[in-house]
Amino acid sequence: MHDDSTKESPMYQWEIVREVECARNVLNELSRLYELSVATNAEQSNEQMVLKALNRVEMDKHIQRVFTSRAVGKKKNEREFWISVSNQLEAKAEEILVVGDSFQSDVMTPTSAGMQALWYNSRSGEKKEGMRYRTIHNLSEITNEAEQISAGNADKLRA
């Protein structure tokens, strides 16, 4: 969903909630193959509030778990946040694929905890690749990337 850092209220209360282009179709496809979760730093929101916001764009039905910095007690740019996510999912770190638009919080920090990551960079043509991460510029690229990554994880990948 499109974030608006100028808003102080929880997203589900915003007058307009907009999905990222292709998000609904991608989630529909991925949810058939993987367990999908949301991880957010939205301090003013709890799990139910995040699900209410997702419901406004009919995407909540694809999400099994929500992890908020408020509930975890750490931010996404802290390695402990991602370790907590892995523990709560009862998954090995290498079985988890994180997709996000913050290179530090959604790529570098989770990969330091052993996870795979896709940097969703819709703002520029910049590409970054590393041992556990790649760049995508459109959400429609996730399906192909997730399949490639999960091939080495015996289909246990949790996107």
Q: Helix coverage percent of residues? A: 25-40%
| Strand numbers in spatial order across the main sheet | 3-4-5
Shape, per Cα inertia axes: globular
Structural class: alpha/beta
Give the termini separation: 16 Å
Q: Provide the succession of SSEs.
A: HEHEHHEHEEH
How much of the sequence lies in strands comes to: 5-15%
- Radius of gyration over C-alpha positions, nearest whole angstrom: 15 Å
Mean pLDDT figure:
87
Low-pLDDT stretches are none
What is the tally of helical segments? 6
How would you sum up the major sheet?
3 strands, parallel
Could you give the count of β-strands?
5
Describe the fold and architecture:
The chain has 159 residues and is α/β, with parallel strands linked by helices. The protein is 34% helix and 13% strand. It is globular and about 40 Å long. The strands form 2 sheets. The protein has a 3-stranded parallel sheet with strand order 3-4-5, sandwiched between helices. Strands 1-2 form a two-stranded parallel sheet. The protein contains 6 helices and 5 strands; from the N terminus they run αβαβααβαββα.
Topology overview:
Elements: H1 23-31, E1 37-40, H2 47-56, E2 65-68, H3 69-72, H4 79-89, E3 97-100, H5 103-112, E4 116-120, E5 133-136, H6 142-151
Parallel strand pairs: 1-2, 3-4, 4-5
In short:
This protein has a three-stranded parallel sheet with strand order 3-4-5, with helices on both faces. The model has no long low-confidence stretch (mean pLDDT 87).
